[in-house]
Amino acid sequence: MTSEPLVVENVVRRFQERLALNEASFSLHRGECLALLGPNGAGKTTLIRVISGRLKPDSGSVQIQGRMQKPGGDPELLCSLGIIPQNIALYENLTARENMELFGRVFGVSRVGLPAKIRESLEWTGLDDRADEPISGFSGGMQRRLNIACGILHDPAILLLDEPTVGVDPQSRQRIWLMLRQLQDRGVSIVLTTHQLDEAQQICDRIVIMDRGRTIASGTFDSLVDASIGRKRKVIFTVSDSAQSLPAGCSAYGSDAAECCVDDVVAELPLRLQQFAALGIRVTDLSVQVPTLQAVFLHYTGHALRESSID
User: Fold this and answer.
1) Residues 115, 130: one domain?
2) pLDDT given for residue 21 in this prediction
3) Across residues 65-84, what is the average pLDDT?
4) What pTM did the predictor assign?
5) What domain range includes position 22?
6) Distance from C-alpha of 288 to C-alpha of 236, rounded to nearest angstrom
7) CA distance linking residue 146 with residue 22, whole number of Å
8) What letter would DSSP give residue 163?
9) Which of 3, 31, 221, 282 is spaced 20 to 30 A from 200 at the CA atom?
């Protein structure tokens, strides 16, 4: 058996004639934050449901803490998982504290230790001053922070989050990412799905890209860049007047700019500026575009919009 907290191997899942998962595979390293990315309908949410035992795969396997997941979920393995769905799973007529008490009992947290865990979690989420208010008056970001806290009261080793920052304000989003980093510091292994590619690039240790039910790429951001779009930087030069001719290797970028790609900005940029000056072209501004996860994502999945009722 593997020592990895989570291993997904060749998982297939059909919904009637539709193939939602097509031999999807990935592994989660201990203590890492892994982003599971893909277009709408790529199979991300379906895969999360298979991992949690809510859906039975047609074939393939899921290993959690070295043990095989069973259809319907193994009760002992479920104690190793914290599952935070995309839709808020809280009781709006209850207070934050009452929601935590309820979920703590559901997850089998001891009555003796639960009050201390709730106090710690309320402080961790920044909701300690709103603990005894009905959450119906909470913002979306506050409810999402509470939702995460309720899902980890039983100290799971693995946390599965489906779009944890969708629809929240920038301050709550930053607080959620801080909360996740603190969980990592405690040794929790995290899998999250998100469409916030800039955040995934900054926060996650590794990235898995899915499309049409398959895992088509995985690795660190740097390794994915090297394997796809490469590390060249695009430089955009804004010029004072429309140029009749441009330096070799440069092309027009609109009516008052030119672009070129460079391997080493520090070494090549002075030479490029000299080339513009030699042609009598005055450069008034420039910008350097670095490789992004969005560019990597589009390289692997294409630009065409695809919609599906199943994800």
Assistant:
1) yes
2) 97
3) 81
4) 0.86
5) 6-226
6) 6
7) 34
8) S
9) 3
